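QUALITY CONTROL LOG
STEP: pairwise intake check
CHECKER ROLE: data steward
CRITERIA: each record must contain a sequence immediately followed by its structure tokens, with no blank fields

ENTRY 1 OF 2
RESULT FIELD BELOW
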Amino acid sequence: MLKNSQPIMQSTLYNQVLISLFTKNNPPWPGNLFIPEVNRIGSDFEETVKRPITASNLVAIENSCERAIVSPLTPQVRADVRNPKGDSLNVEIKIGAGSVTLGKVGAVWEAQKNMGTLV
């Protein structure tokens, strides 16, 4: 990620969100064998967002997102998913005082970070 044309070196929250959402449960990440179950990573997020866009699937995406990110270190997670038009999705994830925004147009994910609200 870049900010003012410079690489962002501290992206802890952003990296945590991307790893949590885009590491699949099936097959599981091999490193999960070495860490306690409560700290294991992996989600069904990618499979959930591939479903047809309906009101119930938008709620399923929010739930999948929150399940993937909630951990002992990030107990307060709130996801808000919107479908502005067609096959586009906007996902805003609030973790404590920070937030990460992801956008999906068709099959392409775009990620932006609101640097002003990250902890």
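ENTRY 2 OF 2
RESULT FIELD BELOW
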Amino acid sequence: MLGIIKNKYNSLSNCIRNLIQSSKPLCRLEDIDIIKRKVVIHCRGISTVIKINLEEIMYDEVLISNLSPVQAAWIGYYYGIHYEEFKLHNNSEIYNNGPPFTDRGGKCSMVMLDRRGNLVYFDQTKNRNLVAIPLIILKTQSLLQKFSPLQACYIGFLSGLSVSKDQNNITTVSQNKLRLVTANQ
């Protein structure tokens, strides 16, 4: 009897170890409802899906870290687009600095943002610092996959912020009234 329990325990622990060590993420993004700002996630081994607010998932490092870097980046992107709205509706201290991501587990890791908003990152395969615009990293899947899911989410967040600011600038410029000035005036 003790041998059967020991075998079951060993097979269960091997199964869990294989899940953790496999290259596949434990969770996958099923859907992002932009209008309702809801995210639907499916985790391996669980038959039900997780429905969570876009705002809540951004501060859930466990869920974000168990997604692929690309999926985590898209969550960050949509959150970044709506960040100002979240900030206005929720008068909280958490919005002063953005999402709290400090993870460095990837082939590339973020070092800093320069004054122009470019991301300086360290590439371990090339063993040097490189500079790129966050939106370019988001659009380049091969590069984005080198970052950890948490850092990829932050890259998406920065990209969403820049797109949101660009859209706001366009509407501001189009609202300005132009008048024709001629030499006779």
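INTAKE CHECK: passed for both entries
DESCRIPTIVE NOTE, ENTRY 2: The chain has one domain: 25-171.
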